[in-house]
Amino acid sequence: MNSALEKAGILVEALPYIKKFAGKTVVIKYGGAAMLNDDLKEAVIQDIVLMKYVGINPVIVHGGGPEINSLLKRVGLESTFIQGLRVTDEATMELVEMVLAGKVNKEIVARLQRQGGKAVGISGKDGGLIKAKKRFELVKNEAGDRIPTDIGYVGDVVKIQPDLLFGLIDQGYIPVIAPIGAGETGEAYNINADTAAGEIAQALEADKLVLLTDVEGILRDRNNPDSLISSLQINQVEPLMEEGILSGGMIPKVRCCVEALQGGVGTTHIIDGRLPHSLLLEVFTDQGIGTMVVK
Amino acid sequence: MNSALEKAGILVEALPYIKKFAGKTVVIKYGGAAMLNDDLKEAVIQDIVLMKYVGINPVIVHGGGPEINSLLKRVGLESTFIQGLRVTDEATMELVEMVLAGKVNKEIVARLQRQGGKAVGISGKDGGLIKAKKRFELVKNEAGDRIPTDIGYVGDVVKIQPDLLFGLIDQGYIPVIAPIGAGETGEAYNINADTAAGEIAQALEADKLVLLTDVEGILRDRNNPDSLISSLQINQVEPLMEEGILSGGMIPKVRCCVEALQGGVGTTHIIDGRLPHSLLLEVFTDQGIGTMVVK
Amino acid sequence: MNSALEKAGILVEALPYIKKFAGKTVVIKYGGAAMLNDDLKEAVIQDIVLMKYVGINPVIVHGGGPEINSLLKRVGLESTFIQGLRVTDEATMELVEMVLAGKVNKEIVARLQRQGGKAVGISGKDGGLIKAKKRFELVKNEAGDRIPTDIGYVGDVVKIQPDLLFGLIDQGYIPVIAPIGAGETGEAYNINADTAAGEIAQALEADKLVLLTDVEGILRDRNNPDSLISSLQINQVEPLMEEGILSGGMIPKVRCCVEALQGGVGTTHIIDGRLPHSLLLEVFTDQGIGTMVVK
Amino acid sequence: MNSALEKAGILVEALPYIKKFAGKTVVIKYGGAAMLNDDLKEAVIQDIVLMKYVGINPVIVHGGGPEINSLLKRVGLESTFIQGLRVTDEATMELVEMVLAGKVNKEIVARLQRQGGKAVGISGKDGGLIKAKKRFELVKNEAGDRIPTDIGYVGDVVKIQPDLLFGLIDQGYIPVIAPIGAGETGEAYNINADTAAGEIAQALEADKLVLLTDVEGILRDRNNPDSLISSLQINQVEPLMEEGILSGGMIPKVRCCVEALQGGVGTTHIIDGRLPHSLLLEVFTDQGIGTMVVK
Amino acid sequence: MNSALEKAGILVEALPYIKKFAGKTVVIKYGGAAMLNDDLKEAVIQDIVLMKYVGINPVIVHGGGPEINSLLKRVGLESTFIQGLRVTDEATMELVEMVLAGKVNKEIVARLQRQGGKAVGISGKDGGLIKAKKRFELVKNEAGDRIPTDIGYVGDVVKIQPDLLFGLIDQGYIPVIAPIGAGETGEAYNINADTAAGEIAQALEADKLVLLTDVEGILRDRNNPDSLISSLQINQVEPLMEEGILSGGMIPKVRCCVEALQGGVGTTHIIDGRLPHSLLLEVFTDQGIGTMVVK
Amino acid sequence: MNSALEKAGILVEALPYIKKFAGKTVVIKYGGAAMLNDDLKEAVIQDIVLMKYVGINPVIVHGGGPEINSLLKRVGLESTFIQGLRVTDEATMELVEMVLAGKVNKEIVARLQRQGGKAVGISGKDGGLIKAKKRFELVKNEAGDRIPTDIGYVGDVVKIQPDLLFGLIDQGYIPVIAPIGAGETGEAYNINADTAAGEIAQALEADKLVLLTDVEGILRDRNNPDSLISSLQINQVEPLMEEGILSGGMIPKVRCCVEALQGGVGTTHIIDGRLPHSLLLEVFTDQGIGTMVVK
């Protein structure tokens, strides 16, 4: 009986958070470690379904990661490189799209459905969700000048048309989105999943954007997990970059958060996907997990 | 962090129950000990608000108990008795109604509101919810014959008109109902709260009727709490009464459950209101609390 | 046949007024003499039901008057006074609430229902309708200075949350409101019924606020009923007060009208509740009854 | 003030009838004397607008009467006759339609609008409301046999398609219908207005069908207005015809009532259109006007 | 099979136009030659029904033309003239209304219905659609001054109340409107059909206003059909009038277009109603027919 | 101008078909030759978008055909065979799903979007659309007995849950469905596309099921295209099979039609996808293309 009472206590403790987020939209970039380990996968899925059942509207944008490389290898497709940047040619893009929209996307949907969630998997082509255009990376030429360079079917978001998402949410579905954009003539572009999540969060006027990553959050000292910066304001970002505390792969993630905040998203979170149920803990406890970036 | 993970685990464990009862209607007869002790009061209120937030539609029917007697005593109203049955004359009924609809009812509403629930307190007069008529108790006369006898403004339910409840539920409110019925000319009748709850559960085609009582449930041996009968089928009721295991105040409660089941209610529960969060435990754990009566 | 034709004539005469107010909201402060005499009660109730049936949305705010004192006396509660102001202590407030929300409110509902109206009785606690805070009266201390003084559970309106009222009106109900407000922790405050009616009229953007009183309206000469001021503009109020024509209990009523007008209510009316069907006459005849205060 | 109170009394007396018919549909055949005299016209129009404002849904089907003959005369169109039956040839039908749909119909609409009603005038061609086919009257030939005979564009109702009416009623309009039916190829047929009203009442599942006529109702003794039969059951109709009490032009009217009743209309009424406000009196007083035919 | 493929090709060619106008409102002034010849009539009707079926909302305003004169002649009504302007006295207006609302209007409705369109014919009296007032033409008096002169029941539009039209369109009907306006007391006024169409187009915020006329459009050289001005901007109108290229009956038509454009209509078109299916060609081909006037 | 008039004529000729199918649901199995040739692809896409724009609700179920084999070959996956039946092992199924849901599906969506259609591509996993279970083919064992044999992830439809489709159609989208079913634990099954289309047509209560094939339809004499059976009744199917006229791959297609008809689909069509716009011609011309199977 004791443990039963304890359970009751914990459920009651969640009440304020449930109240706070009822009816709110939370966009989750799902990727990294949380997509590899089967237990972590199930934990994320349970978290999302639970969020849905207590009245939150989660929207999932996923990456593809290792599955893409694995298929490229299997079909023996060798990539071309320009100054170290991999070129996504048409043949590669075709495989990227297959993996993202045909495998990863549908696996997430199937898991959500099995856990009792109603989910629909789409890509940015569906309902004209993500309009994209070719991205030109600034690549140094021989003279050392940075010149916009065609690296294939990698795209920037031109516009998000969120009607389909509103429709699916209204009908009680959890949208699961493969970050593929469609160009003028319908050609597919590979969009960075963090970017896609951020843009979609803005178009939906989401209350939260959560990036599931493979780090604890932003650390003041990279080697000391206790140095976690749990909350960060927009105007602290530049100084932290100058100090070198924000660096490497964390920079684009933080930039994505900043843009989302400027575009009207309530709060943004960089959390540790390696920790089981980090998503649930972020949403349903005060202490929080990882780093929150706010306006 | 450990305790955080534990919390996540418990929230996730509740998921199947949340899924199971999403959108379901649960009518709760709230009375007895759970209305006296302040901690128990808060626990019940939290349970109800939590139920609402995870998508259940709770409907509360409350008793009045000691508060009524306390007011009767304060105004010095002495009751008449017919063969031991207290007569609810007009002056008494006036005070009963004031306590039920003006004090107990509004206190529950205020507590629910403070916990973040949206609640509306009504009596059976409102929107014509409970149509009632005078009840004639069978009272032994001098010759020893049981004769229907007028014991004042105690009523039987003639009809439940649930439109107002559906309207309030649709708008997201928790209806809190004082068990007062209205007669032909609008006169008030005191209705037994268990009966009112059962009739309302039928009219709402509720999935669950829960009676909060001051006992553990039905015990096979009154002196042994371990002899709890955790589940009971309709056809076992008569034999148990003949054996004397079902007796006293438990009989009308079980009858109320049986009628509710026959009227289409999914399951009915007699649970121990003295146990904090017994309501939550009943709904969100498998083991269950008290006795469930089913078809 | 003649009388039938006469009836037809009168019904037809009402047509322009019915047209004028179709779909409009009229907030009625119901109190005073019209709550004492049984015939007057029935007349008011019939007027309100008729208004509802011809397409007007009446909203009732009632006082409690003599019934409160009667109960205080019965339970032998003696009031404390501060400089002549009665202090509403917790025990008193409890009884006030019982009478207002549990007796007067439900009697009005029952009468409306019996006349064929669909009515729902609530207090300001329900659905968070009236948020209130303690009122500090300015009371002279020994030095003669007016100091804000705690006189118990008498409240000022902090905010009206009219969602519940809109919901009830949409479903065809006549809301009947006991002027009880809820403080931060859910504690009850007694709110002046005129004030509550005025605030609710503003929150509902009502077309009319009608205060049923025990006088003919505003008289230029208190002793001459023929000196009735049938229409008054906001800017005439101050001069009339300076002249002493507006005085005593009429001042807060007129102030309540002025505030309602400034808050967007169409017209306000102080009418004589001692006259049977004065409400109906006010709404359905040109001549008008009592004093209309307009912008 | 006295007369004001009297007015209030009469308005209150109407309340039970207003309640009884709230939301009900009443189909009114408007014709005869009530279309000739200007005061009678205004009285009928006021009655209909009042009905609409107190929540009844009136639907008007009108005749054309003398206006048709007047135009035929003006254009000098001479009618052909077959055995005493006037033949409605194409040229005549064209004029009939112009008068009904272009003059009488629009005059009624303009009067309703001026009295504050929202009205829309249509004919049976609009929205495919009345599908009709040529009627063949049984006409005696020289041999004395009754043979189905072509008398031109006089039609029988094949089907009522009431969608347009439901749409207009939903939007708060009073439909005003010219009894023209459309044949297979869109050709116009003149439909008897009583018949059209009866068929439309059935298609709308109306609660009342009222035929405004130029007689007091059905008289047991044609010369004695006091011999009015105020209520008649379907099974009394045949006997009354055999007795000769029902005869002449009253027979098709009663038949129309009987068919409407058999088709699901609640009650049917033959009332005296020469009496001002007879419509209002029929609906809003108990005594009733004319003869009611019921199942 | 070949011709089948050709058909497919043509249907596919229409796709871009169908897409472009899906859900758009097109107000069509229907008059002139297209109302005389039976083949032209059918072509116009087919065009309108087709427009409706592919998702456009056509609204028809029609003239009456020769039919009015024909009836005036038949009844022998001789017109009075003031300085060459025909006076529309009450007797004339009665006949005008009958022809427009009772004959021409219903014929169009019947034809649309027969072609499978759902149509409802109304006049400006219905639902208060066209509020009008007497028009005073400037007529030269003996002194040569232009003085506003009463020429009878010819009206100017005071206001369009488009609710009825929105309601009919929502229900899938094609509204067909006789250009009759109603004055203060409900009296009918004859409104110029072009003007009525232009005003209605503004009130509906239509995307297109199409005037079906009896000329090719605006010709630079009246005698050379090849000199058609296919597109005209508002600011070119005055110069063209000064040059004398725009003259006679074309001036009010162009003015009507200019006002419609200034009132928010998308594009306006003066097209040749003598050409079969000119309406369809205007809407579904790029080249266009007649003259388009744009902002 | 001539060709313009011709176009108008052809558009008008389509009107009856547009009327006939307005609001109807047409399920199209898209596969075979029509998926290979780029011109044919575009023609099918245009046909579907046109159908949508003229008010039909097309639903697409597609196959994958040669693309699957091509990918299997590229990754070097060699198939196992049981008695000549290819076994779809887990690795194969993974690739099949990627091609169907990630490549073919999204290409169709992108093409529809580019032509102006709003399309959403899903698989049977999404929203629980296709519940499936493992199919056991009857395979001859050595003893020659036909024994149910596990051939891997090839599935039978257990249930279609069409809610998602209704939702998408309501919002104006064209659903494009990859025929993947989800088993109990979310595992993917390859479903025959014809079968999936037939089952979905039944669940949607579609008016038409169209199977795009690579033959002219059912030929009485396989070598004579002029021997096309343009219409076939259910009861003629068995005799034709006995005669050997129905044989080979046509048998399952006809069976699929028969089941759809028995499940409530209006008409079913086997048409020649090699003919450009055969879909449009089937729907918009009388002659019809291919073989229609009807009840």
Explain the overall architecture.
The structure is a homohexamer of 295-residue chains. The first copy, chain A, is α/β, with parallel strands linked by helices and 295 residues long. The first copy, chain A, has one domain: Acetylglutamate kinase-like (Carbamate kinase). Helix content of chain A is 39%, strand content 28%. Chain A is built from nine helices and 16 strands. The first copy, chain A, has helices at residues 2-21, 38-53, 66-74, 90-114, 163-170, 193-203, 237-242, 250-262, 278-284; strands at residues 25-30, 57-62, 80-82, 85-87, 119-123, 130-140, 146-160, 174-178, 180-182, 188-190, 208-213, 218-219, 228-229, 231-233, 267-272, 291-294. In chain A, strands 5-8-2-1-11-15-16-14 form an eight-stranded mixed beta sheet, with helices on both faces. The longest helix of chain A is centred in the middle third of the chain and has 25 residues, at 90-114. In chain A, 53% of the residues are buried. The A-F interface holds A 71, 74-76, 94, 97-103, 105-106, 109-111, 113-114, 118-123, 125-128, 163-164, 167-168, 171, 173, 180, 182, 185-188 and F 71, 74-76, 94, 97-103, 105-106, 109-111, 113-114, 118-123, 125-128, 163-164, 167-168, 171, 173, 180, 182, 185-188. Chains A, B, C, D, E, F: Substrate binds at residues 64-65, 86, 190. Chains A, B, C, D, E, F: It is found in: Cytoplasm.
